[in-house]
Amino acid sequence: MNKTVNQKAWFLVLPVLVLVAFSAVIPLMTVVNYSVQDTFGNNQFFWAGLSWFEDMLSSDRMWNALGRQLMFSAIILAIEVPLGIFVALNMPKGGFWASFCLVTMSLPLLIPWNVVGTIWQIFGRVDIGLLGYTLDAIGIDYNYTQDTLDAWVTVIVMDVWHWTSLVALLAYAGLRSIPDAYYQAAKIDQASRWAVFRYIELPKMAGVLMIAILLRFMDSFMIYTEPFVVTGGGPGNATTFLSIDLVKMALGQFDLGPAAAFSLMYFLVIMLISWVFYTVMTTLDAREGK
Amino acid sequence: MAKITLDNLAHSYLPKPRSEDDFALKELNHDWADGEAYALLGASGCGKSTLLNIISGLLIPSQGRVLFDGVDVTTAPTADRNIAQVFQFPVVYDTMTVRENLAFPLKNRGMDTAEITRRVQKVASMIDMEDRLDRKARGLTADAKQKISLGRGMVREDVNALLFDEPLTVIDPHMKWELRTQLKKLHNDFGHTMIYVTHDQTEALTFADKVVVMYDGRVVQIGTPQELFERPAHTFVGYFIGSPGMNLFDAQIDGRTARVGDTSVDLGQSYTAQGKTQIGVRPEFIRLQSGGEGIPARIRRVEDVGRHKIVRLDVEGRPVSAIAGEGDTIPADIDHISFAPEGVNVYADDWRVEGRA
């Protein structure tokens, strides 16, 4: 193939480059800039090299936040994915009730995150909240502002309430795309309910489930608003996830250098995990072709 | 294998059918003989899939009974009927290998491993997939997948019947022919009762010993391909089978003669027919003439389809087709047509009338 060389073609890419530069690259570079400098105020900066990164890597605070973050993501994925599939399997297949379920289930997804946090903050309060008051009244010692376990349970239940619908809706879409003939063939083959799920429904849902898992992982890994509104990261640091910790560091303590180093590493971790997901998904797709 | 009896069967998708029109499948009595290959032929929406689903148990008829070898299975679930069905779109279990796919129905029935292995091997050679047994089923071509779904039925050696619901719709044309031949061979070798639903007359005529033609929820004729061609029992059969279909002429029937327009046609036999009377003549039995006797006609065009020529004519403003040999020259001055007497059928209200000598 003879390709015509025309360097002027680069001008066509220019608008995109400019746009991306202003919206992403330059802001990111200012963070890089902060991460390698130190300041004592007065807008005077000193070269600090990689010392903030070294500090951060040896800081228990960051590792603890990362540990809590991973645990949180793992728990909500372990609950929301099976629960979402279960809900999708039991939804009506068509007609009025199917639409009714779809709309009802979409509602939590439409509520602003701040509001979700506020709802659960009030819901769980022992003095006036329906949940907190009821639990207290039937003798369960529940107080999310003081008890670590209670705080975790509240934050996790809130996330499950907020996001299981997303997994369920995606799984439902996957299920609806299965032609009836599959179920009929399974009947003729005398397949058990479990076999139908294992060999028909699950493989057909695999694609959308991967997307659901990726979306839920990314979102939960970056979660900030809801736990911040409910627990403010407490009690102590019990529910201080990465984003909450980062904001405390950058805006609360105004430690710009460490916070910048922290955010870059945070960013890299998310990129890395997303890349792993992407690779796994594409290799799965490629294997289908064989 | 079993004889399948449909006793007084009818089905309506409406909960309370009022008139006959509400029935998707009108009342029907029929025996499907053991070991025969049937084709269920008809246009889309004529009730053939309804009938198939009633036999396979995916649908419970609103009246009548289905008997397998005399045993009433009308309300028995699909699994208890021991039938196999191949669907329009190939159904395979994607994540399993070909071998696991074939073994699946046996495994679900709790058969022991040695027997499963033996049967899978046997079926694999029947459907010619021995070399691909350990491949995942998901990447295979549509025809290979369709063979697997067929194999999943055949692996149960004692199936009462193999049902096919337009199985070749998604298969490439050149593979269609091959698969059909293979099906035919399997039927000859193993003698399963087979019911094959299709709207393609070529498929039906080449596959089946007996073709069941359905029209508007009713079985209009059951017969061998030859019977359907020579003695269509209903004008729909005449029109639907054959390419092009049968020509119909409005005619007054009077004993041994029919009057078409101003022309008398000798029928060779005596008929009594009432109602809307027509005569039907297949294009193969129409002779072209210039001058002389016959029905006035005008040639509109001649289509050469390779094996023969199709002559499109105009008879009193209505289209008529005739077939001429590939080598025949069609003179431009053709102005009359006549009929070969053995090719004329008489219809009253769309149903064929039997003549007397």
TrEMBL record, chain B:
<dbReference type="InterPro" id="IPR003439">
    <property type="entry name" value="ABC_transporter-like_ATP-bd"/>
</dbReference>
<feature type="domain" description="ABC transporter">
    <location>
        <begin position="4"/>
        <end position="241"/>
    </location>
</feature>
<dbReference type="InterPro" id="IPR008995">
    <property type="entry name" value="Mo/tungstate-bd_C_term_dom"/>
</dbReference>
<dbReference type="InterPro" id="IPR003593">
    <property type="entry name" value="AAA+_ATPase"/>
</dbReference>
<dbReference type="Pfam" id="PF00005">
    <property type="entry name" value="ABC_tran"/>
</dbReference>
<dbReference type="InterPro" id="IPR013611">
    <property type="entry name" value="Transp-assoc_OB_typ2"/>
</dbReference>
<dbReference type="Pfam" id="PF08402">
    <property type="entry name" value="TOBE_2"/>
</dbReference>
<dbReference type="GO" id="GO:0005524">
    <property type="term" value="F:ATP binding"/>
</dbReference>
<comment type="similarity">
    <text>Belongs to the ABC transporter superfamily.</text>
</comment>
<dbReference type="GO" id="GO:0055052">
    <property type="term" value="C:ATP-binding cassette (ABC) transporter complex, substrate-binding subunit-containing"/>
</dbReference>
<keyword id="KW-0813">Transport</keyword>
<keyword id="KW-0472">Membrane</keyword>
<protein>
    <submittedName>
        <fullName>Carbohydrate ABC transporter ATP-binding protein, CUT1 family</fullName>
    </submittedName>
</protein>
<keyword id="KW-1003">Cell membrane</keyword>
<dbReference type="InterPro" id="IPR047641">
    <property type="entry name" value="ABC_transpr_MalK/UgpC-like"/>
</dbReference>
<dbReference type="InterPro" id="IPR027417">
    <property type="entry name" value="P-loop_NTPase"/>
</dbReference>
<dbReference type="InterPro" id="IPR015853">
    <property type="entry name" value="ABC_transpr_FbpC"/>
</dbReference>
<dbReference type="GO" id="GO:0016887">
    <property type="term" value="F:ATP hydrolysis activity"/>
</dbReference>
<keyword id="KW-0067">ATP-binding</keyword>
<dbReference type="GO" id="GO:0015408">
    <property type="term" value="F:ABC-type ferric iron transporter activity"/>
</dbReference>
<keyword id="KW-0547">Nucleotide-binding</keyword>
